[in-house]
Amino acid sequence: MELIEGYDHQSGVHCGAAALRNVTEYYGWNYSEASCFGIGGGPAFVLYEHPEESWVTFRTSPTWLERAFFERLGISHLSKAGDDFETAWEETTARVDADDPIILFLDPASLDYLPDDFPHLPPHVAVMTGYDDETVQLSDGAMEEQTEVSRSTLEDAWSADRFVPLDNEYLVVTRARITADGTDAAAAGLRQAATYILDPLQIKRDARGPGEEGIPALRSFADYLGTWPELPEPVRPVRAARQSIDEHGEGAAFRVLYAEALEELGQRTGLAHDLADRMASVGEEWRNVKTLLDDIIAEDEPQPARFAEAATLIGDIADREEAVFEEIADELGRSDSSV
């Protein structure tokens, strides 16, 4: 197997931020997972109408995080999608031959090494670090060790036509050099996250599908959740919501990871220290929502009062997140561009 030498795999909380951490360590830049998450513009809230069901689902981190990270640090990179599999295979394997790890955007439902109930909407991010004619080695932040999949499995996972479409997309560094100021990049990531959460229409980024975004979407989700007892199978959307909150087993909608980002990046940008503590507290409230949803799932006959309690807690979270992001925006300003 052709392998990239010197690549250090580490698992993480968020697949994309863990991939960025591993890639930046390989090139000698050594950004933590939390810093990668913050510079890339996490977290998010995107509410999708489920295409096959009468309820909604959501994601709690942005789909553009990896590209935004490289843009903000001025790292030359190639971001490409839309080629047929054979063309994408030839181009990415050539990059591995040149010792460049490739960030891939995949459908987790097609990755046979992940559990059947793996709580993750696509895209799932992993790094291609080796290959032979029939096998690919992936560095996946959800796994403790690098793993191998067949070429046919990669083909299935790399392209999907679900409500978050995938089309053989990859991202690779083309010149291993940071050209932007790190503090400016940190401020830009924090600024855009605040702007996006508070006023998502101001951010020209693709959430990969129609749907509400930001604080308005979070409030809408609370309203939806309160109506779910009326559905014929109310536990099904609850289970999906619980999975979205608990991606990679983190259980806090990535808000605790973002609190770590505020702690690290806030020191560089002059943010008030208490913002990290307040966001960590929001993360704990998300864990309380997860526990409530677990209780609903476990009940033989789910009680409407439980749904109402969870909806109220989500509404409170929306208020607390709005206050934190308003203060970030007040201190750093609001973003007026996609970067």
From TrEMBL:
InterPro entries hit by this protein: BtrH_N, DUF4872
One Pfam family, please name it. Answer: DUF4872
Domain of life the protein comes from: Archaea
Q: Does the keyword Transferase apply?
A: no
Q: Which UniProt keywords apply?
A: Plasmid
Keyword Transcription appears in the UniProt entry: no
* Occurrences of domain DUF4872 (ranges): 154-327
Residues crossing the lipid bilayer are none
> Where's the Butirosin biosynthesis protein H N-terminal domain?
14-140
Q: What is this protein called?
A: DUF4872 domain-containing protein
